[in-house]
Design brief:
It is a single chain. This protein has about 50 residues and is mainly alpha-helical. About 85% of the residues lie in helices and about 0% in strands. The chain has helices at about 5-10, 15-50.
Amino acid sequence: MTETESGAESAGGLDHEAWRTLAGTGVGYGVVLLAMFVVLFVVPFLVFLAL
């Protein structure tokens, strides 16, 4: 196997742009879900406790 072939194979590894995009999308989605959870459940609960 030549170096160019092994380089092409490593481009398909976990350091490929698609994996970084997938990870970024997952993290962003998780942040949005966490923010929604806090706004919809934690904040009203704390308001309820304060009354």
